[in-house]
Each structure stands twice: as C-alpha cells, then as structure tokens.
Amino acid sequence: MSTYQSLNFAEKIARIDAHWSPRVIAEMNDYQFKVVKLLGDFIWHDHLETDETFIVIEGQLRIDFRDGHVLINAGEMYVVPKGVEHKPYAEQEVKLLLIEPKGVLNTGAEGGERTAENNLWV
C-alpha cells in the first residue's frame, strides 16, 4: 500500500538557514518548486530562456524593474517574463515559493557571489 504525503511550506522553509539560497521541495515535469528566504537587496539579473514565478508565503517582496516595480504580498504571486531584467528586494524577511525550470540559476547569466548552488533539496 502506498503512502501519500502532502508538503508543508512552513516546515520546509524552517529548515533553511541562509537567505537567498533556494531549496527544491518538488518537481513537476521539467519544473522545480523551490522555497527560499529573502532579506535585503539582490542583484540585477534576467533569465533569457524562461519566465520565473514568485509566490509570497509570508512578508512583502518588491521586485524592481528598470522602469518601475511590483509589490507582492503574502498570498499573492507575480510572473517575471523571460528576458526582463529584475532585482528582488525584501525590507523584512520574506518567505516564498519559486517555480522555474530545472537548472535555472538564481542570478541568471550574471553569476557572481550571490549565485546559489543549484538542485539542493530540503
């Protein structure tokens, strides 16, 4: 007999210590669902080959664009279209779910010290 178990976002996020370090919690086809804690400013970057979905679980996330910004509150989501340069910012800690294809780096092609190791599960 199979055992079926749901995933609890809060329980998974509680296992993450570092900010800006996404952890995979599930996969669907070629997409990964990642939980992450954010605090402070990130870097300008884009993803030339894919859209990126941000679903805020707790807190408020601001995503800056070169021509404006969007605020995403708990219970809300936003899809950044592929190729659009953006910079996430969290004045206070934000807990969120990212949905993106396998292999997508959090810093896109920008790279650098903020690039998180990919495909780490929690």
Automatic annotation (TrEMBL):
Family matches, as Pfam families: Cupin_2 (PF07883)
Cupin type-2 domain boundaries: 42-99
Top-level taxonomic group: Bacteria
Protein name, as recorded: Cupin domain-containing protein
